[in-house]
Amino acid sequence: MGAEAIEVFAERKGQILVAGADEMATIACDKQSLSGAVSQRACVFCGARVVLYPITDALHLVHGPIGCAAYTWDIRGSLSSGPELHRLSFSTDLREKDVIFGGEPKLELSLRELIKKYQPRGAFVYSTCVVGVIGDDLEAVCKRVAKDAGIPVIPVMSEGFKGTKRAGYSAACTALSRLVGTAETTGISPLSINLLGDFNLAGEIWIIRKYYEAMGLQVVANITGDGRIDDIRKAHGAALNIVQCSGATMEIAKHMKETYGTPFLRASYFGIEDMAESLYAVARHFQDIDWQVMERARKLVAEELVGLVPELREIRKKLTGKTVAIYVGGAFKAFSLIKAFRHIGMKVVLVGSQTGTEEDYREIQQVCDPGTVIVDDTNPLELGGFLRENDVDILVGGVKERPLAHKLGIGFVDHNHERKLALEGFVGMRNFALEVLSTVDTPIWRFVPRRAGKTKSAEALPAPAAQEVLP
Ligand code: SF4
Asked: What is the mean pLDDT of residues 298-323?
């Protein structure tokens, strides 16, 4: 099925490619969403908020109207092993009078009151659209409060209108760069790492940390899942940065390389091959200091795969030939998802992302099968068209894609930041395969009107047995 069969805005045609159709073709991406297209994307502020949100002992104050804070309240399923201040959504609740006369006094009052009450280890102050318009001086207010409170108070310049969600990632990395390098690093092992771009959804960073610790490595800072202000302040003492969500945190990794000489590696903890390769790549980095790191990595992978491979083989038998569409926020997830679906026998017919770069899409083109539709910054109209045309069995996406899938009578697998199921690591691959199987295999899809006539009509099918539908 080609992209031409779907209703697409003329201005968006360059943002859609078909893999294998033209090897030289490049996708148009990393640009403002088309007006009127009702993009699935979030705003700049939201981009910054999702990156910094998992820092659990920080005060997160949204300087703007209440809607911006409500929109991003508890936005990620980022778990904490300690403080949970991040789960509260504070706002200066700017009103008409503040917009006319300026919101700085209200911001300063709110900051001082909240710091006194909650005693955070640091504070982030997010700038929103209206603050960018009225020109409040966040820098000056934060500086004054930081001096009196004795903690870092950092402005996050994330006015919603000033770019794409990607610009929000950049604003978050700029804020992080002001935190890193502000604390002592004595006592940190030469076999040490920081974990970047993992947000501890459903406790995933704990799985990954355990793997690295079993290899004999010290994890200095989580940036940002289950993150702590004091750990991030000394993150420049680690020997290596491991970057998972490169879209969100690559900028801080590059900053640390330039400023402190900390090298970085890209990793993915999703799927068997990528998970194992991430551990091996880190082991290779340290093998000159300690050759046993590689031995431990090999042992760990072997132990994890013993039970998992036969289980996946059984699941694959049931899923072979089923089709899937993937639409995710950051493109890095898509690479691993394509490989993971191949592993369980499913065919990927569409891959898209909200914030992919030209390089990301080039990589996607290389890993997916010819004929796969690749789409940047899609909208419900297009996405719905692609899903219907391909008669996909499941859509993998986030909170904004879920209702679309369900309205079309398509199975949905949550791979976004509010999910409750750990999908990273070897245990995550098992969870993922079982989740896909239970979604594809549910009897409800027999009754979807769209499918009636393609196979048998819903009426002609026998009602599912009670044990099939009851929990
Ligand atoms: S920052 Fe702007 S675009 Fe984002 S939620 Fe607030 S008002 Fe909306």
From this structure: 96
What distance in angstroms lies between residue 160's CA and the mean position of ligand 1's atoms?
A: 5
Q: Which helix (H) or strand (E) holds 382?
A: helix 380-390
Q: Which fold has domain 44-177?
A: Rossmann fold (3.40.50)
Predicted pLDDT at 51: 95
Which residues contact ligand 1 via a Cβ below 6 A?
A: 43, 45-46, 64, 68, 71, 128-129, 160
CATH topology of domain 192-304: Rossmann fold (3.40.50)
Q: How far is the CA of 108 from the centre of ligand 1 (A)?
A: 21
| pTM, to two decimals | 0.87
**What CA–CA distance (Å, rounded) separates 250 from 269?**
16
Q: Residue 222 carries which side chain, given as an amino acid letter?
A: N
Residues of the chain with CATH 3.40.50.1980: 44-177, 192-304
Residue 113's Cβ-count burial label (10 Å; 0-12, 13-18, 19+) is: exposed
Give the residue whose CA is nearest to atom 5 of ligand 1. Answer: 68
Give tens-digit pLDDT for 144-185.
999 999 999 999 999 999 988 889 999 999 999 999 999 999
As a whole number, mean pLDDT of residues 347-361 equals 90
Residue of minimum CA distance from atom 4 in ligand 1: 160
